[in-house]
Write a structure and sequence with these properties.
Layout: E1 2-6, H1 8-14, E2 24-27, H2 37-48, E3 56-61, E4 67-68, E5 73-74, E6 84-85, E7 92-97, H3 99-110, E8 112-113, E9 117-121, E10 137-140, E11 149-151, H4 152-156, H5 162-171, H6 179-198, E12 202-208, H7 218-228, H8 237-245, H9 252-263, H10 272-282, H11 291-295, H12 297-305, H13 307-324, H14 340-348, H15 359-369, H16 377-390, H17 395-404, H18 413-417, H19 426-433, E13 449-452, H20 456-460, E14 463-464, E15 474-475, H21 479-482, E16 488-491, H22 506-509, H23 515-521, H24 535-549
Parallel strand pairs: 2-7, 3-12, 5-8
Antiparallel strand pairs: 1-12, 2-4, 3-7, 4-6, 9-10, 9-11, 13-16, 14-15
Helix pairs in contact: 2-3, 5-6, 8-10, 10-14, 13-14, 14-16, 16-17
Length: 560
């Protein structure tokens, strides 16, 4: 891996330009440009303020990977398919990390955003707080681009010297400028020239698979790609592999997006990673992502030929989740991989699907225990092999495979009582607890909300004596005491909204509630326990009610 440096003006001129080592392009990772115009404007402000641009990651390759151009004139209605470039085995540079930054620079310096071009206020630059805008940029229509706004690309790509550019701007301002305004204009143009034209501010790491093929094979690049994109908009291995698939499957992008839109319309978050891993498993190619699988024309053809049946199987399992289980939201789905054995069974034995037994138990134990966490590919393959050889979905035998893999399926008291506000399984527990609760409202903001019975503010007001000072200034109830599941309940958004539950003490909130309400929320009915002084007794009594509720699934010794 070697580092390269370029000025911003040169780098932008290399995008979509084959003359520079085959040109810089985007692999078909199917992540559209997502920055808003104010984010682009802030990027240019940051560069003017001499803030560093993070290092980019580029792959130099001859691989026949579908790629696309950088977008010059951005509109919300554009289709990425309009920017595809035919695959070839020529040398090319594919940007693996840094798309949003380079695309923003390209739009600002070469193109437009919704038909408006980037203008700069040459009189801006006053000192401001770090998070505020110092150098003002704005996408404007031409008729609004009047002094002090000047078209930014005209400055950056001018062949005149910076001092002559500044004099031209001053001369054409349309009014007499003060001495300070002239100095500010000259300083800003000089800064633009330094930051965008002279200084090599763009640093990119180049993975060279052309001159150094042994150093970076395609599997290496895919792994680097994943790690480089571990923050921000997360990209998975399937994103790069999908670009291999789409070189032979013309409708792949559209059909994949159509499936994902359908799967997620009721509150789930299925991803392309999941769908492609399911595809490989259903076709008995092994769940693990490997470039060779997507290079194999036979596998790609098999996937294409069976896509309708595969997508139908995935949809039916989603429908089962949504309509017949307690898992009715993405928040209650800590791992989607547990679904792959079920989808495998539905795909290969659709005639038996309606009679499958014990799916609830399978889902409950695998999700609560985290049985499919980590890297479960080989375990998924063994589950698929078992189902394929027996023609049955035997929960006991699948559990046997999971245990043979060294994974626990045990659900203990601590599995339930160890949940806390914000923990990954809290919504799974609550979905099971409140399985008749309306968990699929019309709007995301109306989802049921986890709330504290004894409000946080109330519990933080309780202090104990500090042994060092003798003063009563230490918190009695720390976060783990306040956020434990025994102090949590599920409320509708309306109940928990403005002028509703909020920070009302339980002795007020619960005063007019019915026995049915107490039974649903598993709240002790003794009013004495609702008082702040009896918080610890309340917690102990509520733990007993919770454990009684979930007693049918708990394994191990009772500890409470």
């Amino acid at each position: 891996m070697k580092n390269q440096k370029e000025t911003i003006r040169k780098m932008v001129s290399y995008l979509n330009n084959e003359e520079k080592d085959g040109g810089f392009w985007l692999p078909n990772i199917q992540r559209p440009f997502v920055w808003r115009e104010d984010q682009i404007e802030r990027l240019f402000d940051s560069i003017m303020r001499e803030y560093p641009i993070s290092t980019l990651l580029v792959w130099r390759t001859k691989s026949r990977i579908r790629r696309r151009k950088f977008i010059e004139n951005y509109r919300n209605t554009i289709r990425l398919t309009d920017f595809y470039v035919p695959e070839d085995d020529k040398t090319k540079l594919l940007v693996l990390d840094g798309q949003q930054r380079l695309q923003s620079l390209f739009i600002g310096l070469r193109g437009s955003y919704e038909r408006r071009e980037l203008y700069f206020d040459v009189l801006s630059g006053d000192l401001v707080a770090p998070e505020d805008i110092r150098y003002k940029f704005k996408f404007l229509d031409a008729e609004k681009g009047v002094f002090p706004w000047v078209k930014f690309k005209d400055i950056v790509f001018s062949n005149e010297l910076s001092n002559r550019i500044a004099k031209s701007i001053i001369r054409n301002a349309g009014r007499e400028l003060t001495e300070d305004e002239e100095i500010r204009t000259e300083d800003n143009v000089a800064r633009i020239w330094r930051q965008f034209v002279n200084e090599e501010l763009v640093v990119y790491q180049e993975l060279d698979s052309v001159d150094n093929a042994d150093a970076y094979n395609e599997d290496d690049v895919v792994e680097i790609f994943i790690r480089a994109n571990s923050g921000g908009t997360r990209l998975g291995k399937s994103d790069l592999l999908f670009s291999l698939l789409t070189s032979s499957w013309e409708d792949a992008d559209e059909q994949m997006e159509e499936l994902l839109d359908d799967l997620n319309r009721v509150g789930y978050d299925f991803t392309r990673d999941f769908v492609l891993k399911a595809c490989l498993t259903l076709l008995n190619k092994g769940a693990a992502y490997e470039v060779r699988k997507f290079r194999d024309e036979r596998i790609r053809q098999e996937l294409t030929d069976n896509w309708n049946e595969i997508s139908s199987a995935i949809r039916e399992v989603r429908d089962y989740l949504c309509g017949k289980t307690y898992i009715r939201t993405d928040k209650a789905m800590p791992s989607y991989l547990v679904l792959i054995p079920i989808i495998y069974f539905r795909y290969h034995y659709p005639q038996k699907w309606g009679a499958v037994q014990n799916l609830d138990e399978y889902l409950l134990r695998t999700l609560l225990s985290g049985a499919f966490s980590g890297t479960p590919d080989s375990m998924i393959d063994r589950c698929a092999k078992l189902i394929g050889s027996t023609g049955e979905f035997s929960v006991d035998e699948i559990f046997g495979i999971i245990r043979e893999d060294g994974r626990s399926l045990e659900v203990t008291e601590n599995t339930i009582l160890g949940q806390y506000y914000g923990s990954k399984n809290i919504h799974l527990i609550f979905n099971l607890w409140y399985r008749h609760f309306n968990y699929v409202p019309a709007y995301e903001d109306n989802l049921p909300q986890v709330d504290h019975i004894f409000p946080q503010s109330l519990l933080r007001s309780v202090k104990k004596v500090n042994p060092r000072t003798g003063r009563q200034d230490l918190l009695r109830y720390y976060q783990e005491d306040r956020d434990q599941i025994a102090n949590l309940m599920l409320l509708t958004a309306e109940e928990n909204g403005f002028s509703r539950k909020r920070d009302i003490p339980p002795e007020e909130w619960l005063a007019d509630k019915t026995d049915a309400y107490f039974d649903m929320h598993l709240i002790p009915k003794d009013p004495e326990l609702w008082k702040l002084d009896n918080y610890e007794k309340f917690i102990e009594e509520r733990k007993k009610l919770i454990l009684k509720k979930f007693g049918y699934m708990i394994q191990g010794d009772r500890t409470v």
